[in-house]
Specification:
Blueprint (H helix, E strand, L loop, with lengths): L2 E6 L6 H12 L3 E7 L1 H8 L7 H9 L6 E5 L5 H7 L4 E5 L14 E5 L7 H10 L2
This protein binds [cytidine-5'-phosphate] glycerylphosphoric acid ester.
[cytidine-5'-phosphate] glycerylphosphoric acid ester binds next to strand 1, helix 1 and strand 4.
Length: 131
């Protein structure tokens, strides 16, 4: 049984999110997703997500290729989350390339290419321009 773990905010859920979660799940048997809390998101990006953490948890846990979800409170706790969830592989998009190599003592780390031309930020900008 190979357990895959990944992390993200997954705000304004879009196809780039689907693609990384599906590809992550395909690397093993079970997919566990750490969803950034509203507070963590604020500390990283100086804005709160559009969707609350409760709604983001609801959306991600409804996906058939996701087995378990939990709230990620801090980037520094990554090693604890990996240990507690008995994960064998950490998967992240390649915008995080190299950033989590420090957990390689505990599990494999794989960075997957991002889906081009789509992001939450871009969607928010497009919607803002619509009158
Ligand atoms: N992603 C992707 N393609 C896109 C957009 C996002 O593959 N076009 C991936 C990102 O690389 C990431 C995941 O989708 O692996 C979630 O993206 P975000 O919600 O932007 O996550 P982020 O805020 O970067 O949080 O502990 C790490 C953080 O929680 C990651």
């Amino acid at each position: 049984m190979k357990r895959i773990i990944t992390f993200g905010t997954f705000d304004v859920f879009h196809v780039g999110h689907v693609n990384i979660l599906k590809r992550a799940r395909d690397l093993g048997d079970q997919l566990i997703v750490g969803i950034s809390s509203d507070a963590l998101n604020y500390s990283k990006k100086q804005r709160y997500p559009i969707y609350s953490q409760e709604d983001r948890v609801e959306i991600i846990s409804s996906l058939r290729f996701v087995d378990e979800v939990f709230i990620e409170e801090s980037l520094e706790k990554k090693l604890d989350y990996i240990k507690n969830n008995q994960a064998d592989v950490l998967v992240m998009g390649d915008d995080w390339e190299g950033k989590f190599d420090w957990v390689k003592t505990q599990c494999d780390v794989v960075y997957l290419p991002r889906t081009p031309s789509i992001s939450t930020t871009e969607i928010i900008e497009i919607v803002r321009k619509i009158k």
